[in-house]
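Q: What changes when zinc ion is included in the input?
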Amino acid sequence: MPATFRDGAFDKFDNRVTFDDGGLHLPDRAHHSSLRDQVTEALRAALIAGQMKPGVLYSAPAIAEMLGVSATPVREAMLDLVKEDLVVPIRNKGFRVTELSDRELDELTEARLLLEVPTMGAVAAAYESSMEPELTRLRALARDLEAAAATDEITRYLQLDTEFHTRFLALHGNNEIVRVVRQLRSRSRLFGLEALARSGKLVESTREHMQMIDLAVARDRSGLEELTRVHLSHTRTIWATDQARRSATDPS
Ligand SMILES: [Zn+2]
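A: The predicted holo structure follows.
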């Protein structure tokens, strides 16, 4: 049965929408072709950050109100996310976030390491001055990331982080790798990111983005591979910390 979101069908569920920081932000970049794409990106970041939680029912009008847009682009964005298996439509009510097992999260991290580490190494090995205009854009993104980390803007941080890493990987020239990595990142969950931001540790790991650019310019293949491995393993550590916290409060 095709997913359908009918007008007015969601209003009575509005009070079930909860976001940890109450904040959901649209990306403020001009090159996005449509509002639908902007809403999809904002929701994707909220999913990765765990601000939209598995098991909770979300309605299009409630999310539309938080984003300050009409319900139509939100419903369209939801259908995009349904196709990616990130959410499941609940007839006449809205949609529910897909739950991932511990094993699935481990597999996503391993797949990202296998793809991203050697590809970043290859970018460093192939560095040439013609890459400079793109590296200038990456430096600007790295500065924006540091600012977002310092001000705890988690969804903006995740949007910028995805753009930084996919643009960096794209310098290798294989669009298929970029596409798959983007998908793997969308399906990841970083439940502990907000706590990390509050502790100030996110700013520390964010400095690695600028170091990655320096290592590429220095053509330091093994150095960039090692830093990419460390950087991606934060994902696993952040997640493991949250697991530990949850099992400590829930003995079952
Ligand atoms: Zn990053």
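Observations recorded in class: Residues 161, 165, 209, 231 surround zinc ion (CB under 6 Å).
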